[in-house]
User: Fold this.
Amino acid sequence: MIEKQLQAEILLEAMPYIEKYRHKVLVIKYGGNAMLGDEFKRSVMRDLTLLKLVGINVVLVHGGGPEISQTLKRMGIESRFVNGLRYTDAETAEVVRMVLAGKVNKELTHMLGALGANALGISGIDGRLLLCEKESEELGFVGKIVEVNAKIVTDALEKGYLPVISTVGCDDEGNIYNVNADTAASAIAGALKAESLILMTDIRGLLADREDEDSLIKKVYVSDIPSLIREGIISGGMIPKVNCCKEAIRKGVSRVFITDGRVKHSILLELLSDEGMGTMFVKGD
Assistant:
């Protein structure tokens, strides 16, 4: 009986948050180590299905770095990284398209469909969603997004679909680009004027002390980001991730979360509870 009462209390706590997000757009970035393991992957897809079923317009943006690395290795192509980004020549770009827009995208779309979500798999090439140019010659065909044509996504949402977007882009010359998933999710969320963006990662969030996961900073105002960088609290690979948060908010997203993708149901705990899970970034001082 106590357990059932607890379940009822959890549902009651979630109610105002469900009402807050109902009919609003929520963009989830899913990738990296959070995608490893079928059981965990299915758990994330169940959470997204629940959000869709309670009336939230969910958009899933995914990468798939580990899958790309595994496929390149099987093909005898060496993975090379420059400042943490995968060097992408024309051959690697084709592999990225094959893995992300083919294997990973359709796997996630199929999984969501089996769970009851009306999912639609698309890529950044479809509808010229992500128009890109080269980030730099040093990185090859790593895409810098120059335009987001979000109509294909808004059309899908209006028809009741849950869009599942793989992060490959294109240009007018027919080149294919490998696009960082955080960057793509931020740009898409901004174009959709999403209520929230969640970046799933492999740490709890922004930590005051990188060696202490209990030093989580729960809320960050965008205006505080430069000082946090100067103090070294935001450093290394966290700098581009936080810049994606800042850019999304600058483009109209209400709030952005960096949350721990290693924890089951972290999306639900972040959105539908009083405590939250990770770090929330908001506009203001």
The longest helix spans residues 90-115. The domain at 24-282 is CATH 3.40.1160.10 (Carbamate kinase).
